[in-house]
Amino acid sequence: MEDKIGNKKVKQKCDQLASFLQENTSKKFYICSHDAPDPDSLASGVAMLRILEFFGITSPYIYYCKDISHAQNKAMQNILQLPVKKWTKDIEQEAKQLGDDAIFIFVDCAGKNQNNMSIPFDPHVVIDHHKTIPSAPLVIYDEVGACSTLMLDLMLNMPTIDIDGTQHNCFDVDEEGMIDLCTALAIGIKTDTIAFVKEGTTEYDFAAHQILTRYMSRDKFYRIDNYELPEYMFDYEQIAWENKNLMNPRIISGLGFLKSSHGDCIPYIAERFMRLEGIQTVVVFGILEDEENNNIRIRAAVRTTSAACDCDTLTKNLFGENNGGAKQGAGGAIVNLSYDIDLLDEEDRRKLWELQKSQIVKRFVKVTGK
């Protein structure tokens, strides 16, 4: 059976990407995810590393800026031993010194102007599936359910390479690491499409996942899909329930201050609240404390199934045009606050939280109606 997805938009770009890589084999490549990589961006990054390897290019890491904090993301990283590395000032200085010999490829994000992309370089190549159309010299884009779908399609359509008279394919399941790569891509597609029920899931996502299930490790897929939850998830879920403002069919809840490494509980709780009977729109938010960088920021998750509510518009109305966005009913926002953690005492924190909570809830009521 021939492995084929059939997305013409991807196929048209394969030769361009192959030519670009072959013309730049002597340069240093940086594969970059958005700040807090999820399974789809992690899998897409690993797939891009495989494509580079196919063309004889060594690039050891997927770079990101903030945290891999969500329990499932950590499980995926540990089980599959993903080659991820946090972006640092030293890496940034190295890239600056390389100048034109540094090549940046962004996966699962539109570019450096995206709110959750802090790597300060213009990409040479962008591979993405989000609502905002990327800008770069080479863009591989289609609004499918997952970037992992595009990455598999790229590998399947890459031109063969002749090595000592033998033709080699980029997507060769007999190559070392390919079973784990298939597992990662399968998880990426399942999570980003919310098990194929999310608006925006396409026939290409179904086709890609069907191919991957033939080659992936079912044991590792199961372990990642059924990841263990840390205790703090349940603690914050209780806080969210106690702090909720219920305005059927809408609900909004604030968690107060929480560690930056616990920020993954915000989208998790938003997804949980969406399962409440009669609820169509959910907003969950909190103030994250980043002690490493001595700053604080609001993080929010927005979810809606309401036909009368555009999630992207709602997210931007609540948290600012440049602070967030959404696709197919799921949104998120990060709002940096100009305060130093070490200068805030308990009373300052209480007043700051009450002010932010009041403003966000009032804005929510104003935007969505009473």
From TrEMBL:
<dbReference type="InterPro" id="IPR038763">
    <property type="entry name" value="DHH_sf"/>
</dbReference>
<dbReference type="Pfam" id="PF01368">
    <property type="entry name" value="DHH"/>
</dbReference>
<feature type="domain" description="DDH">
    <location>
        <begin position="28"/>
        <end position="166"/>
    </location>
</feature>
<dbReference type="InterPro" id="IPR001667">
    <property type="entry name" value="DDH_dom"/>
</dbReference>
<protein>
    <recommendedName>
        <fullName>DDH domain-containing protein</fullName>
    </recommendedName>
</protein>
<dbReference type="InterPro" id="IPR051319">
    <property type="entry name" value="Oligoribo/pAp-PDE_c-di-AMP_PDE"/>
</dbReference>
